[in-house]
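Hi Y.,

Following your request, here is the sequence exactly as I used it, all 102 residues.
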Amino acid sequence: MQTQADTHCNATIAPPSLGEFLKKTRLSQCGASGRPLTISDIKRRSDLSLPVLSKLEAGKIRDPKFSTIVQVCKGYGLPFEALALFVEDIAAARQVGPQAEH
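Below is the corresponding structure, written out as tokens. Let me know if you'd prefer a different format.
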């Protein structure tokens, strides 16, 4: 007999967006006070502005520049490999995007 919970076992779970990943990463890290890091803490650890960091976490910047990715790694304390999947997804989206008519 199949239960309602069993019907969801085959569901595909989408990976988080870059913004979701960054926010979860930030909130999982504790600052000197023992509380989760704030966006201001990330700003101090990187060369990115508060508006840029807020937009990244909110998913409003969907195609960050490589230099931004480098600063994100620095600010969030992540190795580049942790963001490589997102960079590859962005590159793939560029290739699959609307094709120009000839």
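The radius of gyration is 17 Å.

Thanks again,
Q.
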